[in-house]
Amino acid sequence: VENSDVTSTEMAEREVLNPANIGFIGCGNMAQALLKAFVKEGLVDPSQVVASAPSDRNLSKIRPIGVKTTNDNNRVVCESDMVFLCVKPHLLADVIEGLDPLERNHNPLFVSVITGFDLHTLEQMLSSIVDAPRVVRTMPNTPCMVGQGCCVYTLGRFATSGDGSVMNSMLKSVGVSAQVPEYQIDAACGLAGSGPAYIYAAIEALADGGVKMGLPRHLAQTLAAQTVKGAATMVMETGKHPGQLKDEVCSPGGTTITAMHVLERNGLRNALISAVEASANRSKELGKK
Q1: EC top class, in one word (predicted)?
Q2: Binding-site residue ranges for NADPH
Q3: Over the stretch 35-46, which tens digit does the pLDDT of each residue have?
């Protein structure tokens, strides 16, 4: 038997999707990240994907991979077995209002990546076009584009266990995937959804520090990014608490413990905790508007 990196279980999971038709309403950064990752991983056939947006600005970015594009949201819903809702929160009501009622034999799975909107609200809104809408609420992040995403999801009242299995298969193909109770989605937004931006800012600041102390910019940025990647891998692969790993780097009276004192004095922990809290609270606010 020929060895393969793809297990029989993974092959079966992929067969669940193909040849399903996948649709995207909205084609911003998150939609592009998910779509390109799904295609790269072989989960979907580009020819069976249709994406819509009001203009060609973003659609032009995905045409080269072979997907169909349109300005008609109704076409996406009518042609798809699974529809990713990827529009800005303030646009969702108008988008759904513009959709025509579906035929009785067509009940696609709606996957929301929209910040703030809870399952009850989504189901209520989508009931204007289909009875008992099947809805999954997700919170992915943009590192999905490079297979290193953090994705959580929760199932609506009418979504089936099979829907959950398919969703998990798709999301874990682009990183870490976990099903969570809905009340945890906003917290996940604050941590993992917004988190990449916090880390980019940290990498930029570390690189600036390296430049200040004499390193060339390109080398400083490479060292900063690799340091973050290496530290994250240590946490994931060793299973040790981050505090323990930190202590292992801090020699008595050494350079690192001296630097850690500066970080504590300037409120690094408080800033990160407060950032997660602020993002999570903003996610809740967006859903109430």
Answers
A1: oxidoreductase
A2: 73
A3: 888 888 888 899
